[in-house]
Structures are given as C-alpha cells and as structure tokens.
Amino acid sequence: MSPNNKGLFSGAVMSRDKVVVKIEKNNIIEMDKELAPLYIIRTSDFEGWLRMRSIDLHRTNSRLLKKVLRLNTSDEIEIVLTANAATITDTYWVKEKGSTLLYKDIIFTKDTFSDLALYGDPNAFSLGRQPTPELTNIGSYEKCWKMKRGQWYMYKQGSEFERFSEVFAYELGNKLGFNMAKYDMWDKYVVSEDFTNNGQVNYEPMHSIMLDNEDYMDNINIIKEMGSRLVKEYLDIIFLDTIIMNVDRHTFNYGLLRDVNTGAILSLAPNFDNNLSLISRGYAKSQERNDLMVKLFLEVKKNVEYKIPILTKELVEDIAKQVKAKVHVEIDINYIVNFCMNAYYKIK
C-alpha cells in the first residue's frame, strides 16, 4: 500500500474489520471515540500515529530490511503503509479507499525476515518481497518477531550485562507478585512472549495519552481516572524501576491493554523493557542509593498510599545466582544484592 493523491492517504483506520477512523487526504473526518487508537483520540494526528508505528530507521538491520524489500524511501509513513500499518501488538491497520482487503488478508502469519532483523542474516537476500511485521517493530535495539507454535515471541539483542539486567528484572518482579512480561534466554538473545496473545487485546503505549511526559505524579493522576486498581500496577512498575535503577521508563515502554471489542481499558500492560537497568551500563562507583530514582519514588510515597513489598537479601541473592547461570555471565553478586537492598531500605 502507498499513499494516494500525491502522498496523501484516504481510507480508514481499521480495528480488525471495523472502521474506527475515516481519513480523507490525511485528515480525520470521522472517528469512533470508543474504539479508535488512543493517540488519535487524544491528538487527532493521523500522520503522527503512523510515525509512532515505524521501525527505527537508524537500526543497521532496518536498512538491510529496506534493501531486501526494495523500499527506496526513508519516509516513515511510506514504510508503515507498506505493511498496512499493522503490528503484532494490536488489531489496528489502515485500509485504502476502494480496497477490498480484510483483516485476514493482512494479518502476519510468517516470520520470514526475523533473522535479518535480528542479526542481519545474509540468506534473507534470496527470499524476495513478502509481508513482514518487522516494518512496524519499533525500538532502538536490533530485534525481531519469531513465530513458535502459533505464538509470536520477541527476540532482542543486548550485551551480557543488559541481558542479565533484563532477565533479573523479570525474575525479581515475578517473585514480588507483579504483572511482568516474561523474559527468558535463547542462545545470546532475550526472548519475551507477545503479551497481547496474538491480538486478543490491544496494547497502546502510554505515549498515546501522556506524550513525552514521564512525571510520576502526572501519570498517576491520569491513570487514577482510568481506575484505582491501575494505580497500584503503575506503582509496582516504578517501585521495581527504583530498586533496579531502570532509568529508561519512557512513555513508549509502558502502557495499557484495551478490550478489542469495546475499547475499555482492562489493565496496564505487563512490565517490560528493563534491559537498561541495574548493571546494563556497568557497575556504579557507589552502591549507596541516594540517586534520583530513589528521590523521585520518595516524593510519590508522600502523596500516594502504597504498600511496599517485602524484599530480602536472600531473595535478591538467589535470583542473581539463577540468572547468572542462565545468562552465562560473570557478575558480582554481592554488588547486586547491596545495590538493590540499599534502594529498598531508603524507600521503606
């Protein structure tokens, strides 16, 4: 698919086979405010919504993907439209005016270019043009979607310390009873199952509502309007961020799950994308935690009631040992224990 009318798109944003937004020459002329994407409801910016769905063109393997698919453009909108703006993690897509396509015609069923997107597999250059979810696989790390037994899984590159930090975060959050996207290891990649279960729910990043505003209290106040139970889920996320010093919780790596049929907000999405936490950038000079993450959480604690989970040295040590063996990396376990527990003592 390509834009018509000299680069302007006319047609519709679809959810499965239901029209949720009507578009005429890139302008929104009608919208279902119950079912439309939250970003479009919030901003009425169709082009911005398309750009949000584009692969990061600075990734080396995205350039290889463009070459294999013979996409002679660096325009994010044109690239997204090539994939009908469809993604793995929601049921939205765009249908050009006059098209007879149905959702079953555009939904992704194969992972043909997964290895090219993940590590630049040269064998992909003999595969020819085929539909791929990689054109709408956002983020700055080399990654891909692989299909295993009818289920999509995200595979992502990273250094040994990044892989350790990602899997450690999952294991710790899981032990504390938090809603976590499961992370495991496969060879030298971290692997996570698609938490929308093949489009049974729609994932929408918090950017759709908050744009770039990461302020804890601003987010809490907005989330509170969606339901008090969601506030606890958000507090769990920023509690864990504080313990493991995840400084990368921007508004594209947390978000909401919505009912596909009604548009109702069901919950926050499981906690994901913790690879830039803990020792991902090496060991800090001091394990004393008087850092900004601790200070920000303490400010929240003054204003919002939150029952601090029970965290022990023994639990952190056990998890660190298990993940060390799984990732096959040499780490200082005492450092991990002290780093996490010092933050815990400060906020408890």
TrEMBL record:
This is HipA-like C-terminal domain-containing protein.
